[in-house]
Design goal:
The protein has 490 residues and is α+β, with helices and mostly antiparallel strands. It has 3 domains: 18-212, Beta-Lactamase, CATH 3.30.450; 230-314, Helix Hairpins (Orthogonal Bundle); 323-464, Histidine kinase-like ATPase, C-terminal domain (Heat Shock Protein 90). Helices cover 50% and strands 17% of the residues. The strands form 3 sheets. The chain has a 5-stranded antiparallel beta sheet. Strands 7-9-10-12-11 form a 5-stranded mixed beta sheet, covered by helices on one side. The longest helix is centred in the N-terminal third of the chain and has 53 residues, at 20-72. The protein is elongated, with a radius of gyration of 50 Å. The two termini are 91 Å apart.
Length: 490
């Protein structure tokens, strides 16, 4: 099927008759045709004006030359000059004050004047006539009359210049343009047709390669032509998009696999416990298994909640409240909770810090980071909260091994455990840091692992402080209304 066309897919569907190639060619030919038409009209108008100016200048110059001959010689010498310089399409007369022809360039115009205009000496007059009745000539003429004085005598020099030469020149140019226009339009049409066809062949090849890529073959890529143009950029963009799709599909498959693997363990425990309890008619086994089943149910509930939180964070749908939060109070509460359950020594150094955010979500971040530090610490955990400029910085140090440089980005991915000690039974599902990163990003902050001062493991959380609000001006009347009084302090 030709590119740009589609077959009717049902009754009442309009078929696309003109593809990109035909439309581009038609538009190009139309634009060039309009440009040639306008340009041709302008060219002919300018050419006609130029020829008219040239003819008028030539006639005036002829008259002035005749006057110059008359000033230096007598009328007979002027007559000889006129006869010697005469040419076809031009008539010259010298008239006296009464209108008698004293000299002429042709016997046909020797009896009657060509023009009734009688300019005064030094004055020039022009006129256009459609014919010369005195000689029976029906062609158009441009007549220039110049007044002159020699001694005490006044003369009028008349130069009649035929306009047919101008008309013939314009007609020749117009016919040439009319004959060349179809050839030029055909050349434009052929060039655009071939150029667009060549470009569309590359687009069609890219379309065909993309059409063959499906969910089972996401590793396919399109060929990048070495043209370094828009088609080249399109192919690169398509490959970049396919890379993202493949990475997203791989991530989704891995997520489904990991989530299934994580949920399989508590589900298997619940199923086995229920079967064992159901097989005991006395009910004693249920009393023994209920604590285990309850613990596995809570574990699966927490895991599902974590997965939902991650899904919202990845889709940009994680909603966080924007309220004033005393971050030091939230952090102090989480430290107290950890001290009640941890075997490690925990020290804290906090300064007051108020930010805008969601207290519940921020507490979840701090809990995940503190629990992660507690699992990896050898004996000590140090927490610090301080402000720096327009930021508040929280550092959580533990005396365990620092996270390797190569894994510092990977630990924020879902279900990532860097060593075997982070087993499911040990309490780590591999989702805590991923959730923390998503919540911190929703608060326009950042979280990263780094090395502590003693070479131990450190997590650094940076959150923005709210912009200070300038106090509104209070007028004396408003201060009295609200009971605002001076402190009296000097």
């Amino acid at each position: 099927m030709a590119l740009g066309k589609r077959a009717p897919s049902g009754p009442g569907r309009d078929e696309i008759r003109w593809g990109v190639r035909k439309r581009s060619t038609a538009v190009a030919v139309g634009v060039v045709a309009v440009a040639l038409l306008l340009g041709g009209i302008v060219l002919l108008v300018l050419l006609q004006a130029s020829l008219a100016r040239s003819s008028d200048a030539a006639a005036q110059q002829k008259a002035l030359d005749v006057i110059a001959e008359m000033e230096d010689m007598d009328i007979e010498d002027a007559r000889a000059y006129i006869l010697d310089t005469s040419h076809a399409g031009q008539f010259v007369q010298v008239l006296d004050t009464e209108g008698y022809v004293l000299a002429s360039s042709d016997p046909e115009v020797a009896n009657s004047p060509l023009s009734a205009q009688r300019p005064s000496p030094g004055q020039t007059m022009t006129q256009d006539v459609s014919s010369l009745p005195s000689i029976g000539d029906t062609d158009d003429y441009h007549i220039v009359t110049v007044g002159a004085r020699t001694g005490t005598l006044s003369y009028t020099v008349v130069v009649a210049q035929a306009a047919q030469i101008q008309a013939d020149t314009i007609s020749t140019v117009a016919w040439f343009m009319l004959g060349a226009t179809p050839l030029l339009l055909g050349t434009v049409a052929a060039s655009v047709w071939l150029l667009v066809g060549r470009s569309l062949r590359q687009v069609e090849r890219i379309r065909g390669q993309v059409a063959r890529i499906n969910a089972e073959r996401l590793d396919g890529r399109v060929d990048v032509p070495p043209t370094n143009d828009e088609i080249h950029a399109l192919a690169l963009t398509m490959n970049t998009m396919l890379d993202r799709l493949q990475a997203s599909d791989t991530e989704q498959r891995r997520f489904v696999s990991d989530a299934s693997h994580e949920l399989r363990s508590p589900l298997a425990t619940l199923r086995a416990g229920i079967e064992i309890a159901a097989a005991d008619p006395t009910g004693a086994m249920w009393l023994q298994m209920k604590d285990v089943l309850s613990e596995e149910t809570a574990r699966m509930s927490f895991l599902v909640e974590d997965l939902l939180t991650l899904a919202k964070a990845n889709d940009g749908g994680l909603r966080v409240e924007q309220k004033d939060v005393d971050l030091d109070d939230v952090l102090d509460q989480e430290i107290r909770r950890l001290r009640s359950t941890s075997r490690n020594q925990i020290s804290a150094e906090l300064v007051p810090a108020r930010i805008r955010g969601d207290a519940r979500r921020l507490a979840q971040v701090l809990r995940n980071v503190l629990d992660n530090a507690d699992r990896h610490a050898l004996s000590r955990i140090a927490v610090n909260l301080h402000t720096a400029g327009d930021r508040v910085i929280i550092t959580v140090d533990n005396d365990g091994d620092p996270i390797p440089e190569a894994d510092r980005e990977r630990i924020f991915e879902r279900f990532v455990r860097l060593d075997g000690s982070r087993s499911r039974e040990g309490g780590g599902s591999g989702l805590g840091l991923a959730i923390a990163a998503g919540i911190v990003a929703a608060h326009h902050g950042s979280i990263r692992p780094t090395d502590g001062p003693a070479g131990h493991c450190r997590f650094e959380i940076v959150l923005p402080l709210p912009e200070p609000v300038e106090p509104a001006e209070v007028t004396p009347r408003e201060s009295r209304r609200h009971g605002v009084q001076g402190s009296g302090r000097r």
